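Trying the structure run again after the queue cleared.
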Amino acid sequence: MHSTGLRWCWLVLGCMGWSLASLAQAQTFPDRPVRMVVPFAAGGPVDVIGRIMSQELSKALKQQFVVDNRLGAGGTIAAEHVATAPADGHTLLFGSTSTLAVAPALYSKVAYHPVKSFVPVSAVSLETLALLVNPAVPASNVRELVAYLKANPGKMNFGTPGNGTQTHLVSEMFRQVAGVDTTHIPYKGGAPSVVAAMSGEVQYLFNPMSTSLSVFKSGKLRLIAVTGLQRDALAPAIPTIAESGYPGFEALFWIGIVAPAATPRAVVELLGNESQKILRTPEMKEALAKLGSSPYITSSADFGKLIGSEFEKWSALAVKANIKPD
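Done. Tokens:
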């Protein structure tokens, strides 16, 4: 046989061997409990959704999925742990915008890359952020808010859960596109920043929809816009910032599952397919709606593209605004 033909033969046989080995591993996976590593504390939105998904995956794959909360450094400790774990599908990261886009864009010594260190398994949920203002602020929409802020340069404040958080980046993006001069007041968490807005210590803030609806419905804060390109189904009467004079303005909080980069393709596909089946159920849609979120139905490839584009977006903004985490 010609040498070129032999090389092709060995190549085909090698690929077949890899495919068969990967398929065999998928057929026995999972053969022990799977750890779903969550980068945030128990009880928060990411943790709650992670526990729901873990329960459903346990039922679907007849093996226990255990939530492992690993806190610290903006979620980077958990992400680094998963990035260096055995790539067999038994250790997964329940990541989010914060862990897979914002933190690696800000921290200079992160020991993982959001695209190169992981393989996307499945997007899980998606929610917009709310632009909330104190009721004393004479603004019922974005145009009025911008006009008020421009009429009072350097005198108005906005709150965030801390330096380098996603809402800090979104607030800086808003300042840039709107051309307003306001002062950043960082707090130690989302709840204190919302309390500060209600008391008038800060005049406005961006906050996840999941924790904004209750204060909006109570009248303690005014919800004037959302950050998606489309209106939020939970508050369909509220316009987007994009339709309020700033086309293309978009900031979303997403959650998804990723695995170590070398995880076998068949294992990733099995986990991804089962996750997407779960997200299509009415029960999961209802559970996420109660948390102010919605299922994110998309392919793992498109989820991977989202991670990459979000990382680039927030990296560029962090450099432009000279934002550094505490």
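The mean pLDDT is 91. Worth checking whether this holds up in the mutant runs.
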